[in-house]
Write a sequence for this structure.
């Protein structure tokens, strides 16, 4: 069976640094460690991937082996390096990288391996105004409480929880592999250190029942779409007495009828009548803090942009608020009466007699066309 490229296994480029390779191996091992998976088939598949990742790291973490592998591929490294923990240098690299993983994944309590609970995610939708000013919100999330029947033991009332005879309550067993002793999760009790012969019929041996609780969440002012808020300890409960996971609230900001957000700035399109654009005047525009006035100069062209300083949003990491940009959209009148048509025609005739001074952009366009065809 052909072996996969070691760089591909760890998901790193061939020019990856030693630190990048080490971090990639940590992520890989955390994801594929057999103790992270339930069921015989899943554990077996995870174990194969885990061994493959270990082989890749044994080679890529060693400068000499990596150089040989880069030059000759799999033929350039020890062909007998298959699973296990290898010897000497390979085991040293494993211990260095994987020791950190054990610190992150497990807490040792009375010899048992305890696991942190899974994290939970919650999507919350808020308005642009709420994102700008912040808000306090209540959300309902899953919760777990001790089973009312077995009081958290997991055993049917009237029966006892027995100590696992394989690991003697430690949750782990020792295995010898060559010159090394390796500790792994007990295959009988799966790390709990106990055996429940008759599971509770209400909680099915879990010791906990799923419920619901209300959580108070503070949405900070200036939060943007896609940002997450972490609520520590409000995820799923851990295993074997491990700490609970965390809850991540992902914020989604609803599209606004008027404003579009760009960082701390806001943008809006303001329709202006043809006569106001031509003659000038004052118009009123909305802002998140109330109304504001803009002076439209005579001869304002479509697309002209006006900036209102400090009328945007003060972001999470900003000391001052952004700006509001008003983009002028000159509105052409429709459904004209005969009188209006006649008046506009007379105006157009008058503008034509005035020459190019009334339409500088039009004259520039004509000049460009002439040069193009000449």
């Amino acid at each position: 069976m052909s072996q996969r490229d070691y760089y591909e296994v760890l998901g790193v480029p061939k020019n990856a640094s030693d630190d990048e390779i080490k971090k990639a191996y940590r992520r890989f091992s955390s994801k594929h460690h057999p103790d992270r998976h339930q069921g015989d088939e899943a554990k077996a598949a995870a174990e194969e991937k885990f061994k493959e990742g270990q082989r890749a790291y044994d080679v890529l973490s060693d400068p000499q082996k990596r150089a040989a592998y880069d030059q000759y591929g799999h033929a350039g490294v020890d062909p007998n390096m298959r699973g296990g923990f290898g010897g000497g240098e390979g085991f040293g690299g494993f211990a260095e990288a994987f020791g950190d993983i054990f610190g992150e994944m497990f807490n040792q309590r009375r010899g048992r391996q305890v696991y942190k609970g899974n994290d939970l995610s919650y999507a919350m939708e808020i308005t642009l105004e709420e994102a700008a000013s912040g808000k306090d919100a209540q959300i309902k999330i899953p919760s777990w409480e001790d089973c009312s029947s077995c009081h958290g033991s997991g055993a049917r009332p009237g029966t006892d929880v027995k100590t696992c005879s394989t690991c003697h309550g430690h949750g782990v067993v020792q295995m010898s592999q060559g010159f090394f002793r390796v500790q792994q999760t007990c295959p009988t009790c799966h790390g709990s250190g106990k055996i429940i012969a008759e599971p509770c019929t209400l909680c099915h041996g879990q010791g906990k029942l799923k419920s619901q609780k209300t959580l108070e969440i503070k949405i900070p002012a200036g939060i943007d779409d896609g940002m997450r808020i972490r609520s520590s300890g409000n995820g799923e409960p851990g295993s074997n007495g491990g700490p609970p996971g965390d809850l991540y609230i992902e914020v989604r900001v609803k599209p606004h009828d008027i404003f579009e957000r760009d960082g701390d700035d806001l943008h809006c399109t303001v329709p202006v009548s043809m006569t106001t654009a031509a003659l000038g005047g004052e118009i009123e525009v909305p802002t998140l803090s109330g109304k504001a006035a803009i002076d439209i100069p005579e001869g304002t062209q479509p697309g002209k942009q006006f900036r209102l300083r400090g009328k945007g949003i003060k972001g999470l990491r900003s000391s001052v608020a952004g700006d509001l940009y008003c983009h002028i959209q000159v509105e052409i009148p429709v459904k004209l009466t005969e009188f209006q048509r006649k008046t506009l025609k007379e105006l157009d005739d008058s503008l034509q007699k005035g020459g190019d001074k009334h339409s500088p952009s039009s004259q520039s366009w004509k000049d460009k066309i002439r040069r193009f065809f000449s």
